[in-house]
Amino acid sequence: MAASVSTCGGLLFGYDNIVISGAIGYLSQRFHLNAAGIGWAAGCALIGCIAGCAVAGTIADHLGKKIGLALCAICFAASSAGIFFSSSFHQFVIWRLIGGLGIGAASVISPNYIAEIAPTRVRGRCVTLYQLGIVVGILAAVFVNMLIQRMGDEAWNISTGWRWMFFAGIVPALLFGGMIVPAVESPRWLMKVGRRDQAVQVLRQINGSQASVHEAAEIENSLAIEQGNIWELFTVFRRPLLLGIMLAGLQQISGITPIFSFLPEIFRAAGTASSDAFFQSVLVSLINLLFTLVALWLVDRAGRKTLILAGTALQFISLALVGWFYHVHGSGLAVLMFVMSFVAGHAFGNGVACWVIISEIYPTKVRGRGMSIATTALWLVGYLGNQLFPIMHRSLGSDGTFWCFSAGALLTIILVALLIPETKGRSLEEITEFWTSHRGATAV
Fold this sequence. Notes:
Elements: H1 2-18, H2 20-30, H3 35-63, H4 65-84, H5 89-117, H6 123-149, H7 154-167, H8 170-180, H9 187-192, H10 196-207, H11 209-224, H12 238-253, H13 256-261, H14 263-269, H15 274-298, H16 304-327, H17 332-348, H18 350-360, H19 367-419, H20 428-436, H21 438-442
């Protein structure tokens, strides 16, 4: 049930974040937007994400993960309904900001929640289920967009169709809210707030009686050496804080958010017809799902760092080739193939491993706030990507834009290879101990 709740949180995150890809062309005509306005329409939700990230850690650390996730469900449902009835661009932006609050908070609390519940041996796979939820949500968004786009003509899509694309998200939002009620609370959060008996009961359900006693003692010992003060992140745990911020920003620097947000527009720029562009977006999302399933199998076997390096190398090559085919006015099919390989690299690499690592590297008492800070960096870079993409496209061309993203992937390979440690096979308490040791404080 805990894994299902986390996965459903990811699904809503994926749907609400990417549904804009099918709507952006139509709502930009409905509200007569210029390039900056199109960027703001695509990126305003990410401003909400940043705000959601900023408060989610504090909510999760003080009120618990279940209450935090319930608030996310409310934001998702309210945003879907509000956008449907929006009569102006300003109203659209307000409701997208509210939806962004839910996306940002869910991106902190959902992986945090499952990481604190899952046994060490399968923690990577359980956190990967959250990423699987994201890609299923993305696939659902582009598939729903395609179905709705084909329900009417251009005029209907401009006036009404794009509204239904957003409104469809209310169904999983209500399902998510209902699933939270019977789910267990994080045993580490329960232990932190003094509800030891409940924490041990949850651990017993997950690990069995004998293992739960040992794990409860390990959690208590770890909590005893943590102050729980946010300033601890800037002193004892400064290194994991900076690495988490860096890794989260690097996940976005190769352009995954703007590429998904503008997928149909990218294919149209390569000469693809509008209806075919929506179908190609579905194919890309299927590849995203397939390779996330591959990551689910690999993450606790190959390790987090290995997946990031391999996946980002594929992204670097794919983006460089997408730029080249735009430069020589190559076929739209070639652009599709290499966009698909770029997304595959993200799916089995940084798309999964980033969330796993930033859910593992912070100490229990301040894990929520540490993840908030790191994930805020992720959404800040994602927002800049969405806001700048239309401007980059007009000033640099499609080829120059994708070459810039390719350079971002190359930077990611270099920094991850030099700075990120491997966390595979370590308990959360062992990772905390690693940072407080001399080795962890000085390791590169």
